[in-house]
Write a structure and sequence with these properties.
mainly beta; 14-stranded mixed β-sheet; 3-stranded antiparallel β-sheet; 17 strands
Length: 257
C-alpha cells in the first residue's frame, strides 16, 4: 500500500463546473517550430483556479501484485495536496503533501511516514518536489522548461522536444499539435537502469483550465517495473475544501535511512 500510494501521486457527475468540450488531439503539425516557440505555446494554456477536487479510480500493477482502488485528490494550488486511497469505500491510506514535507499513513500496516521528498524520489526514480508532484497531477511538465536548452523534432501528431546535455539523464516531452498540451514525458537514466514515463492520453476543457482526464505512470528501476493508470472521474474547481489529516496514536513511524 505504501508504494501504491507514493506512485499514485507521482499519480461522475460534475458539480459547479461543466466541461465545454472534450479535447482530442487530431491536428497535424503544420510547420517546423523551434523548441522555444513550442514551450511558449504550451505555457499559454493557463490554469486559473484556487482549489481542485478530483474523484478518480486507479489501477496499480507491479511484478508481484495488481490492485484497483479509488482515490480522492484535493489540491489547494501551490500550498498543499491531500490524497485519500479507498478500497470498497473505506479509507485505507492518506497522504498530505506540502512544499516542505510528505506525510502519509497506512491503515493496513498501522504505520505512518513524516519526512521529505527523498522517499518519493527513490520510488519513482527521479528527483521530486512539491511543484513536480502538483504538475504531474495537473498534466504539466515536471520541469520548468523556460530555463533549459532543447532540441526539437516534428512527429506524426505533434512535436517532441528533448535534452541530452546531461550525460546521466535524458528528458523528452511530446506535445500535441493543436493546444500544445503535454501528451507524454520521458525521463531516462540509462546507467542506473531507470525510466519514468508519464502519459496523458485524453484532456477535457473547462473554463478554469484544460485538464487531463487520465494519467498513466510507467516506472522502471533496473528489473522492477511498476504501472499505474488513473482515471479522473469527476473534477470540480474552487470549492471550499477541508484537508483533514490525523495519524492514530497507535501507529508506528517509518524511519527511512
Amino acid at each position: 500500500m505504501k508504494k501504491l500510494f507514493a506512485i499514485a501521486l507521482t499519480i461522475t457527475t460534475l458539480f459547479s463546473c461543466k466541461p465545454t468540450k472534450v479535447f482530442v488531439a487530431e491536428a497535424k503539425p503544420s510547420s517546423d517550430l523551434s523548441a522555444s516557440k513550442i514551450i511558449q505555446k504550451h505555457y499559454n494554456n493557463k490554469q486559473n483556479f484556487k482549489t481542485l477536487y478530483i474523484k478518480s479510480s486507479a489501477n496499480y500493477k507491479d511484478d508481484k501484485q495488481s490492485q484497483s482502488v479509488s482515490a480522492e485528490i484535493k489540491i489547494k494550488k501551490d500550498e498543499k495536496i491531500l490524497i485519500s486511497i479507498r478500497v470498497l469505500g473505506i479509507t485505507m491510506a492518506k497522504a498530505l503533501i506540502t512544499p516542505n514535507a510528505v506525510k502519509y499513513y497506512d491503515k493496513i500496516n498501522g504505520n505512518y511516514f513524516d519526512g521529505d521528498y527523498a522517499l518519493l524520489s527513490r520510488w519513482l526514480g527521479t528527483d521530486l518536489n512539491f511543484n513536480k508532484v502538483q504538475n504531474m497531477l495537473l498534466g504539466q511538465c515536471l520541469e520548468d522548461l523556460s530555463d533549459g536548452k532543447y532540441q526539437t523534432t516534428k512527429q506524426e501528431s505533434g512535436y517532441k522536444i528533448f535534452s541530452d546535455t546531461n550525460a546521466n539523464t535524458n528528458i523528452a516531452y511530446y506535445f500535441d499539435a493543436d493546444k500544445f498540451l503535454i501528451k507524454k514525458e520521458e525521463i531516462t537514466q540509462p546507467t542506473q537502469g531507470r525510466m519514468l514515463q508519464l502519459s496523458y492520453p485524453n484532456h477535457q476543457t473547462y473554463a478554469e483550465a484544460i485538464m487531463p482526464i487520465s494519467l498513466i505512470i510507467d516506472a522502471i528501476q533496473k528489473e522492477n517495473r511498476t504501472n499505474i493508470s488513473i482515471n479522473y472521474n469527476s473534477i470540480t474547481f474552487n470549492e471550499e475544501l477541508s484537508f483533514p489529516y490525523s495519524v492514530p496514536e497507535s501507529y508506528e513511524r517509518i524511519i527511512i535511512n
